[in-house]
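The passage that follows is intended for readers who have already worked through the single-chain material. We present the inputs for a multi-component assembly, then the predicted structure in tokenized form, and finally a short commentary. You are encouraged to pause after the input and sketch how you expect the pieces to fit together before reading on.
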Amino acid sequence: MASRQWFRRRRIGLGWRPVSWQGWLITCFVIAALIAVLALLRTSPARIPVVILLLAAYAAVALATGGRRPFEEPAPLEVETETEPIGGEQQRRALRTLTTTQATSGPALVVEHLTKRFGERIAVDDVSFSVEAGEVFGFLGPNGAGKTTTVRMLGTLIAPTSGTARVAGLPLSPANGIEIRKRIAVMPESPGLYLRLTVAENLAFFAGLYELADPRERIRQALSAVNLAGRADDACGSLSKGLRQRVALARALLGHPSIVFLDEPTSGLDPVASRDVHALIDGLRNHGVTVFLTTHRLEEAEQLCDRVAILNTRLRTTGRPDELRDRFFTRSLVVRTVGPLADPARVFAVDGVAGWRPDENDRYVLTVEDARAAAPQVTRALVAAGADVLSIAEAQHSLEDVYLELIDEDVEAAR
Amino acid sequence: MSVARVRAVVLKEVREFRRNRFVIVTMGVLPLVFLITPMLTMFQISDSASGAEVRAAVGTLSLFMLIIPLVIPPVIAAYSVVGERSQGTLEPVLGAPVTAGELLLGKALAAFIPSVLIAYAVYFAAAITIRIGAAHVVSSVVWHAPQLLAQILFTPLLAAWAIWLGIGISTRATDVRVAQQLATLAGLPLLGFTSLISFQVITPSVPLAVGLALALLVIDLVAARVVARLFDRERLITGRRAVSPPA
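Having made your guess, compare it with the prediction:
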């Protein structure tokens, strides 16, 4: 049994994967031996059965020592446990080395009237926006809104039907396809890794496509940046979804990109894996890389993005998350009392309150110009009226409220 | 055209084949079957056998040897594009700075090199074994110069044809197995051509071998151009044809 293990470890013999030079040497030796046997037995009628027997014996030995049965699925696909999260000093150092981005003057992305039709269906309709260098730009929208199509157009994967764009300082055109792809990195929703290859082999392939000067060092840095240096020799098929996503991120960092397009990078990830991706996006921003992030996780966009755009085939709005909240929702105060007010119209007739409405039982929503100035006056009026006040608070609106408001408008318009 | 990028594609493809047991088994077992079957006949022919009997046996061997470059490459080539598409790796590759020409050439070379090496290795193993062990009448027909030349010239050209055909089908197919079956079937018409030479219906001579090889070379070059045109990034990603294709 020990000798069998010894053979298995070295994968010696024909087997199904004669990967070592010893394996090839033995295979050649066996073929030469068979030819010699044939030559010796050339006059004997037994030569054919002898050769067939020898071949069968060798195949049996090779199967036993080579280890695996034919048609067995590749690579042990058991899911490994997660490694350390991203965000340590070592990762920050690696990220710093990786993100010495190519300098481009002006905005990283300028999109003007971009439209994409698939036959009769309009996927993206007359979209215009710009993204500054070093910005994390969130591209939000429901399923089928055209987010991925926009990323594919800007990543030179598909051609726009009409409209123009400048990507990393270059006009979007077939002639500039290669040069644009050298300056950007696109990470699609699915990591798209070769599961039979190891992590390092996956990255080595892309390092070759980017014609990197020192691919080994670059791969080492990219893996350090996503804290996967210890998993370089693992088959990608054996990694969990979160780790595969990290490998895809490492791949995106290989080519010194000045813009990284991340298409729903946390889709299907657990909270820990999502946190790691967020940490990496934050790290990229800190090192001046422009991140174009498509997502429908609104809390993620609110947490990470400097600016967001909301798309539903047409671009509905762009701006900073707080700007959008202010733009779409008037400021308001929410007043809660123990019982209903006898005459709320008289109580709320104070300076700074533009209007009011009852919301639920014993709850009133006041429209105000400046919540900080109006709150003390409303408090005094409530006390003067003898009301039993439970709370007075500024109404909080999230990016989700803005998003839902806009998408609901589209649904209404469609009716 | 960047040699480094083509090399990167070839290396990746070869690494993938090595881990794909279906490909390894096909590349290992089929040539072995094609070698053993005619050899069994060859070694049963004695020096007193008639010329027709010898020619028929050598024709079978030659046909089997020319089937190898027609059967092995489609297994790899047909997987090349549709395989990437089905495992979701095509989009990241097309998003990298590689042209369609570099990608296709890399994939074609990765299928061509091992296929041709195997076909040559099997043929010369057979020829040497016959020289050592078979009857002299058989050996003299196998080691006839035009026969050898035809085998040497046609093996890579037939392999190239099968590869471009396989890649062409792979760019349009939606399923790996369907692509492999179609590619193998589509290569079969050339078997008729190889049969005519193998059984000496067309008697192999040096000028004929060179002439036919040149004709095959032209067909291969045309096939390469057609496949490059069939490679439509937009269609591969979205399933719809591009209005104005990107680079």
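Commentary: Chain B is about 80% helix and 0% strand. Residues 51-86 of chain B form the longest helix (36 residues). How closely did your sketch match?
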